[in-house]
Write a structure and sequence with these properties.
The structure holds two protein chains of two kinds. Chain A is of the alpha/beta class. Chain A has helices at residues 43-50, 72-78, 94-104, 110-121, 136-148, 166-181, 193-197, 216-222, 239-243, 265-272, 289-304, and strands spanning 3-14, 17-28, 32-36, 58-63, 66-67, 79-82, 154-158, 185-190, 201-206, 209-214, 226-231, 250-254, 257-262, 281-285. In chain A, the strands form three sheets. A six-stranded mixed β-sheet of chain A has the order 6-7-8-3-9-10, with helices on both faces. In chain A, strands 2-1-4-5 form a four-stranded antiparallel β-sheet, covered by helices on one side. The longest helix of chain A is centred in the middle third of the chain and has 16 residues, at 166-181. Classes of the chains: A alpha/beta, B alpha/beta.
Chain lengths: 305, 377
């Protein structure tokens, strides 16, 4: 097993704010690793440190076997990085944007590569359209094409599908899986649970600290969370009331149903006892990733304060 | 809810004020601009310069000559800072722009004054900047009536008070008709190039930062020097086209003499364009928004117009302002352009100005390279 990303003890502060604390990440070659965490948890900062855009205050490690502190140029040459905000030139056409990227990376057969990329995107007919006029979903797919034009071995994606409709997200992820099948390693940050479940493994970061790692199933299992699924008329309106009870960590309405979770089974059962009556019906359910993440977030907050 | 609501006006107004104070630099500029510029330009600019450098060629050693010289000294218009021995030396000084006036007191001066035989002194003025010489020339005419008054008593007293004892012959060199356009139009070349080039490039990096494209660019293997050269090269062409256009119009519409000095002019234009672009690039690495970049450009361009000798005579400014003006590349570029077009200066005549421009290019480029961030830290 070869590690595409192998960094440990990464720290980064901006002023007095410690944005990333002792983050250690290892991603095997050819795997898709989902990078999750609430807003402002240090995901973007970590990605930027991995590709040499930011210098860590301390910590060390390698990307693709190159030292992240000393060999940023080597890493940049072999890494595709897609920023959170659309960062291609809106006043250049699709083809011009890709040609620019091809030149900056000093690629050969540039025309052919650009034509191939546009063909794969299904945008050959719009090669002379300005990139700024594309819709959100197409912009992201164009940005992905630009980030992979130089055939990188590592792809860093920073919330690539924020604000993109489900269909476009689906095709975006199909593309990522296709790339991964060719041996590309992908580290992708996201807020979407369905996307997290499409990753080979996930890493959860909160308040700058990495607090969970593994496959989706492993993360769920390690959380040791108990979840009850409640149904019945008006049960969703009881969310606030139930959430305030001791032993209950979260109570989240799912449509007309309610998911109530807590780390301590006995305490949770005790809290729910008064509600185990008609017309409500309760059943135990395996927690899903979202339940786990909300649990992790709550825990991390406690540790942090 | 329609009509005019003062609450809604207040809402917009309060928001606007808050945003203004959040942008510290803009805020500072609003206060600093009037104060700095008022102090700077209020004290520096003087449209009727005194203490102009004057070279003297005295071909006779006599009481009259000495009286005349002390008269010149007392006039406050002339700084007699050079004594030369030959007309050729005077000529060199004028052509190189080392002196504003060259005054020759001829060898037969005393003899002719005493005889009342059309005594003359020759004053050659560098009229490439006509406004610099006007006051001084007027003062010279008055001088001819008084300078020798004390010496011309007793036996050598002049019979009639009507005619002055000697005549001041003024030669306005390089622009004999004192056409203002001859001075302004070549100067405009420097100002226009500064305005467009510094401003355009100052926006170049800032725009990428503001639009977010900088992050992608930094994530590629591209090197700082590659970005700088690539970004600036197109503007070199812009600068050359502007130069050609201005020179063409200067010749055809304003009949500015294109007197030669092409070698120096070409070198000067090249250095000035590169220097302006490097400065714009430096600004764009410092400014955090395009608005800030614009403000900084204007902060540079105003002194370039006012302290460079473009609008007001350089030598009219106090010493400190001249020192400040020496730092501005437009100052040196103006001398190169005027020197080349109006005086036909050779490369050797303008080497100091060219060296100053070259130094500017090196220092500013180096600073820009140091400032250019390869990371987002």
């Amino acid at each position: 097993m070869t590690l595409a990303i192998d960094v440990s003890g990464l720290n980064k502060s901006f002023g007095a704010r410690r944005v990333v604390q002792d983050v250690t990440i290892q991603v095997e070659e050819g795997r898709i690793c989902g990078f999750l965490g609430p807003n402002g948890s240090g995901k973007t900062t970590t990605l930027r440190m991995l590709c040499g855009l930011l210098t860590p205050d301390s910590g060390a490690g390698t990307c693709l076997g190159f030292d992240i502190l000393k060999q940023a140029d080597q890493i940049k040459r072999r890494t595709g990085y897609m920023t959170q905000k659309f960062s291609l030139y809106e006043d250049l056409t699709l083809a011009e944007n890709l040609q620019f990227t091809a030149r900056v990376h000093g690629l050969d057969r540039r025309e052919a590569r650009v034509a191939d990329a546009l063909e794969r995107l299904g945008l050959s007919g719009r090669r002379d359209q300005l990139a700024g006029t594309l819709s959100g979903g197409w912009k992201q797919r164009l940005a992905l094409a630009a980030a992979t034009l130089h055939e990188p071995r590592l792809l860093l994606l920073d919330e690539p599908t924020a604000g993109v409709d489900p269909k476009a997200r689906r095709s975006f992820w199909d593309e990522i899986h296709a790339l991964s099948a060719q041996g590309l390693t992908v580290l992708v940050s996201t807020h979407y649970m369905d996307e997290a479940e499409r990753c080979h493994e996930i890493a959860y970061i909160s308040y700058g600290k990495l607090i969970a790692r593994g496959t989706a199933d492993e993360v769920i299992a390690e959380a040791m969370l108990t979840t009850f699924h409640g149904e019945g008329p008006g049960i969703d309106r009881l969310a606030a009331e139930i959430a305030a009870l001791p032993g209950v960590e979260t109570a989240a309405p799912f449509g007309a149903a309610l998911h109530v979770s807590g780390p301590d089974r006995a305490a949770l059962e005790q809290a729910l006892a008064p509600y185990r009556r008609a017309p409500f019906h309760w059943s135990e359910t395996p927690p899903n990733l979202e339940d786990v993440f909300i649990h992790l977030m709550a825990g991390a907050e406690d540790n942090f304060q | 809810m329609s009509g005019f609501s003062s609450l809604r006006v207040l809402a917009v107004l309060a928001k606007e004020f808050k945003q203004l104070t959040r942008d510290r630099l803009t805020y500072a500029m609003i206060l600093a601009m009037p104060v700095v510029q008022l102090l700077l330009f209020g004290y520096a600019i003087n449209s009727e310069p005194r203490h102009l450098p004057t070279a003297l060629l005295v071909q006779e050693d006599s009481v009259f000559a000495r009286s005349l010289i002390s008269g010149l000294r007392n006039s406050a218009f002339f700084d007699l800072d050079r004594q030369v021995r030959s007309p050729a030396e005077l000529d060199d000084l004028l052509r190189r722009g080392d002196t504003q006036f060259a005054i020759t007191i001829p060898g037969d001066f005393t003899r002719r004054v005493v005889r009342g035989d059309h005594a003359q002194i020759l004053v050659e003025a560098d009229a490439t900047d006509p406004s610099a010489t006007g006051g001084a020339v007027a003062a010279l005419q008055a001088l001819s009536n008084q300078a020798l008054a004390r010496d011309l008593q007793g036996s050598v007293a002049q019979p009639s008070k009507a005619a002055p004892p000697f005549e001041v012959v003024v030669h306005s060199r390089y622009n004999p008709e004192a056409v203002t356009a001859y001075n302004i139009v070549p100067g405009l070349l420097g100002v226009i190039l500064s305005m467009t080039l510094v401003m355009m490039t100052s926006l170049s990096v800032t725009r990428e930062t503001e639009r977010g494209t900088m992050e992608s660019l930094l994530a590629t293997p591209v090197q700082p020097i590659e970005v700088m050269v690539g970004k600036l090269a197109p503007y070199v062409l812009v600068g050359l086209i502007q130069t050609a256009l201005i020179l063409l119009l200067a010749g055809t519409l304003f009949h500015v003499p294109l007197g030669g000095g092409w070698a120096g002019l070409s070198l000067g234009v090249a250095l000035f364009i590169v220097g302006s672009l490097a400065l714009g690039f430096l600004i764009s690495t410092v400014a955090r928004s395009q608005l800030q970049a614009m403000q900084m450009s204007i902060f540079y361009i105003l002194p370039s117009i006012l302290l460079s000798g473009f609008m007001f005579p350089f030598r009219g400014m106090p010493e400190w302002a001249q020192t400040l003006g020496q730092i501005i590349p437009v100052t040196h570029f103006l001398r190169v352009v005027r020197g080349a077009l109006l005086k036909g200066q050779s490369l050797e005549d303008m080497w100091r100005e060219l060296a100053a421009l070259a130094a500017f290019v090196c220092v500013v480029s180096a600073l820009a390279m140091l400032r250019y961030r390869r990371t987002l830290d």
